[in-house]
Amino acid sequence: MILRPAEALPDGLTSRARSYVGVHGVKVEVRPVEDHRQWWLERGVPAGLIDRMAAFQATWGGLHLPPAPQYDGGPRCFNPDSPESDAEGWWFEAGTQRTACPMRS
Question: 84 pairs with which residues across the strands?
Fold first, then answer.
């Protein structure tokens, strides 16, 4: 289901960002992070990280934005993805990335 436009804009956006998201943003339903909570907890993902993912999803989840004229990077659709860890701790991606890095063969 499409909830066009992004009716509930998050607090803290500049007036320019509010205008851009309000005009160009499309919000779609996404599968709730909570559906995966137990599975992630059983695999050692910290509950606090899952809470952060759920909060991020509540604010930004499902928001699609077109590329801006001066910038085409960043997430295509905002929605937290699988939590991961590295030497610095746990993290999650904000969504599927818009651009890919070229690779030489």
Answer: 91
